[in-house]
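Good morning C.,

I know you're traveling, so I'll keep this short. The sequence:
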Amino acid sequence: MKTCDYVGCENFPCSDVNQAGYIIPGIELDAEAISIMLISESASEKLSDYYYESGHPLFAETTLLAFSDAGVNAGSVSELVQRGVYLTSAVKCAKTAYGIQTGTITECSCLLEQELSLFPNLKAYLLMGDVAIKAINAIAKRNGEARPVPAGSTYKIRSSEFYFRGRRVFPSYLQAGPSFFIEKSKRRMIAEDISAALKLV
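The tokens, ready to paste straight into the viewer:
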């Protein structure tokens, strides 16, 4: 299965993103073998830096470092996928500024919801940053469900247990891109969250 065969944006209504950076994961995978979904912020500024691109994409580099910090020595993103970890972004286009408008996150959460439905055996969601957290909450709100992640600073709430449709939700920090190298405390917490998710599978 390829996610891009089942999920796609048709109208591109969002004005604060770069549509030239639009991407849906196109890696061939066994959807039933995926147990953890890692959701980061947005597509990479350069398509060549996206998770599944060839060469040395930045998103892959920092994510593999994050998993290494958590005790998982994977040599490639494909190896993570083989271990049951699927990587995607909440917003499918590249961002044009530091932040992303709430309306854009809500709009793109419709695509994310379609994506979630493709993986029947998920046990955990790793929500890497505020955009991913807002996207999951938007899906819940649209369907009349309680918000999986309450309001509050991530470092204050992350020690609690949260669930979305029976699966554990881990609110964490962004691991994709150059910001991963900046704050060591966040990098430590990212590793802790990944480790906790892995223990469920």
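Safe travels,
E.
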